[in-house]
UniProtKB/TrEMBL annotation:
Keywords: Membrane, Transmembrane, Transmembrane helix. This is Putative membrane protein. The chain crosses the membrane at residues 29-47, 59-82, 89-105, 111-131. It comes from the Bacteria. The keyword Transmembrane helix applies. It comes from Streptomyces luteogriseus. Residues 136-194 are annotated as: Disordered. The keyword Transmembrane helix applies.
Length: 194
């Protein structure tokens, strides 16, 4: 052991954390997580046995098989949201429908815990949109290839004060290059914010 060993392990942890962060940022991570967490109580509660001292309470009902199927499907949909981002809208809508069906079939949707988590996960999956990574944005700026469109800042050979070089925004745009009165869409981890 040397004095550099903790630094190396911290570097490995930081590297793994950043890799996980990059992986998480390219998919509807929270939608999948909430959907998986919602499927667990829906599938678990009908088969659970609660022990209170010497007395045992069993929640077995005739809808146990239906609850198990709904729970497993919700867990599968959550994994699909993580690994097949192209089907996120279908998976989100299916999770919402299964959460609603679980209210009737599975002990009030896993005592409302599974229902609420699955509804939240399904809604997040439908709302998630893939965002542009920082590296893509930095690469475009460095190469001089900015965004195209109405609100784009266009290069000019003559600036607003007559000096050569620089960029200017087209007439009728705000300071940030967007059209006046139009607010750019904000993104927060891929979920629509504004």
């Amino acid at each position: 052991m040397s004095a550099e060993t903790p630094v190396q392990s911290a570097g490995t942890f930081a590297r793994l954390r950043l890799r996980f962060r990059d992986w998480r940022g390219t998919r509807p991570f929270w939608a999948g997580l909430f959907t998986i967490l919602g499927g667990v109580p829906i599938a678990y509660f009908p088969y659970a046995t609660l022990k209170l001292g010497t007395m045992s309470l069993t929640m077995a009902t005739t809808a146990g098989a239906g609850s198990l199927i709904i729970g497993v499907l919700l867990i599968t949909l959550g994994l699909t949201m993580w690994f097949q981002q192209a089907t996120r809208v279908f998976a989100g809508v299916a999770a919402i429908i299964l959460a609603l069906v679980s209210l009737v079939v599975s002990n009030i949707g896993g005592f409302l815990i599974g229902f609420l988590l699955s509804m939240l996960g399904g809604a997040l999956a439908v709302a998630w949109v893939p965002g542009k990574s920082e590296e893509t944005r930095k690469g475009r700026r460095a190469a001089g290839k900015g965004p195209k469109g109405d609100g784009a800042v266009e290069p000019s050979s003559e600036g607003p004060a007559g000096e050569t070089g620089g960029t200017h925004a087209p007439f009728g745009t705000g300071d940030d290059g967007t059209a006046e009165g139009v607010r750019p869409e904000a993104h927060n981890g891929g979920y629509r914010v504004g």
